[in-house]
Write a structure and sequence with these properties.
With 401 residues, the chain is an alpha+beta fold. The chain folds into two domains: 232 residues, HIT family, subunit A; 157 residues, 2-Layer Sandwich (HIT family, subunit A). The chain has a twelve-stranded antiparallel sheet with strand order 2-3-4-8-10-12-11-16-17-15-14-13. A three-stranded antiparallel sheet has the order 7-6-9, with no helix packed on it. The chain has a two-stranded antiparallel sheet with strand order 1-5. Helix 2 crosses helix 5 and helix 5 crosses helix 7. The radius of gyration is 21 Å and the shape is globular. The chain starts with 12 loop residues before the first strand and ends in a 7-residue tail after the last helix. Keywords: Carbohydrate metabolism, Galactose metabolism, Metal-binding, Nucleotidyltransferase, Transferase, Zinc. One of its GO terms (molecular function) is UDP-glucose:hexose-1-phosphate uridylyltransferase activity.
């Protein structure tokens, strides 16, 4: 057996309290050596025991929480997080920072695991207060609510209060969400739901965003199968634009979009609770949206049945996208959720998966019109893209839970 799968031999261990979540997923929470929170989510029927190794590393103090600066021309807040310059960049497998610790690899996760979630060591948004667990120094100038952040004037700054978490889908060194088993995918979905609820309850959090970056073409710096969750102190610019559209067109906008798309030729696959489609006005060469059939604000609002269906359906979608070409497709899988405190009855949970891959050996780069002006030019008609994707998904074996 590979010892790296089983944590550091002889390391001290503890037995954290275990909570059983929906679907039989077991959750236990502990702390890393510098006080950051680490949460294990165990598959139902896992062979993991209740004990978890203790993180005994001697770590530097956590960096001070970053600072946001207001771009007065747009109203956007820009977080300046200099500590991110020191994050790992394409390390070899034997130094994988997301693998279970070994004597030769003092990684971020001390125990073997199924799914693990922990606070990012180099976060874009950090804790507001120092605690007994050794969190960063208290925020010098935290946001004072959405009205405060909405004021426009020159030279405004605020502390980048929030939280950034890493979600490890597997202890394997390589892969993505799409390479996981249905059971493991279901565990990750349960982790997303649990973390969405927990992060939404933190003081000062206005929006929670789970996502996966896949491939070096997207800027991924670790081959390990993982995603992230950002908890923002504001409502993001993309969501603010969405809320303006909802305000102009009505609170049932997502229901009407779904009805229209389900009646079109752009549907990729559909189940009892979810439908995936290429949107009417797709920007990217590969762009797929995935919506729940009923209104849910975020993952925490989904039912067990919706989570159960999502796991195999999402896997088949991702594997179909990979079947388009002979090599894995780079993408950003962005799970848009309603803000924590506003538009909960109108902004619907949905996936927007985008890839710049426009051919086997070509990428779409954002040049003058898109990057500078936000004026997009699509390369492929959405109906043509949908037809190719349907054929690719049909070529993939059906995923059963």
């Amino acid at each position: 057996m590979n010892m790296q799968e089983f944590g550091t031999p002889g390391a001290p261990s503890t037995t954290p309290d275990v909570e059983i979540l929906t679907g039989g997923v077991a959750k236990c929470t502990t702390r890393l050596a510098d006080g950051r929170e680490l949460i294990y989510f165990d598959d139902p029927g896992t062979d993991l025991g209740p004990e978890r190794s203790v993180d005994t590393r001697a770590l530097d103090p956590r960096p001070e929480t970053a600072t946001m600066r207001l771009d007065v021309l747009t109203g956007d807040w820009i977080s300046v997080a200099a500590s991110r310059q020191n994050r790992a960049f394409l390390p070899p497998a034997e130094l994988d920072p997301l693998a279970p610790q070994t004597p030769a690899n003092p990684s971020e996760i001390p125990s073997r695991y199924d799914v693990a979630v922990f606070e990012n060591r180099s976060p874009s948004f950090g804790p507001a207060l120092r605690t007994a667990h050794g969190d960063a120094p208290a925020a010098a100038d935290p946001p004072q609510g959405l009205d405060d952040l909405g004021e426009l004037s020159l030279g405004r700054t605020r502390t980048s209060v929030g939280r950034c978490e890493v979600v490890c889908f597997s202890p394997a060194h390589e892969g993505s969400f799409g390479t996981q088993t249905p059971t493991r995918a279901r565990t990750v979905i349960e982790a997303w739901a649990d973390r969405t609820a927990a992060l939404s309850a933190l003081p000062g959090i206005e929006q929670v965003f789970p996502f996966e970056n896949r491939g070096e073409a997207i800027g991924v710096t670790l081959a390990h199968p993982h995603g992230q969750i950002y908890a923002y102190p504001y409502v993001t610019p993309r969501t603010q634009a969405l809320l303006r559209s909802i305000e102009k067109t009505g609170p049932d906008l997502f229901a009407r979009i779904l009805d229209r798309e389900r009646a079109s030729t752009r549907v990729i696959l559909s189940g009892e609770h979810w439908t995936a489609f290429v949107p009417f006005a797709a920007r990217w060469p590969i762009e797929v949206h995935l919506l729940p059939h009923r209104h849910v604000a975020d993952f925490a609002d989904t039912t067990a049945a919706e989570r159960d269906e999502l796991a195999p359906l999402y896997l088949r979608l991702l594997r179909g996208i990979d079947a388009l070409y002979d090599s894995p497709t780079p993408y950003i899988a962005a799970w848009h959720q309603a803000p924590v405190h506003v538009a909960r009855d109108s902004a619907r949970l949905h996936l927007q998966l985008t890839s710049p891959r426009r051919a086997a050996d070509k990428l779409k780069f954002l040049a003058g019109s898109e990057a500078a002006m936000g004026a997009w030019i699509g390369d492929i008609p959405p109906e043509s893209a949908a037809e190719r994707l349907r054929e690719a998904v049909a070529s993939v074996p059906e995923v059963t839970a």
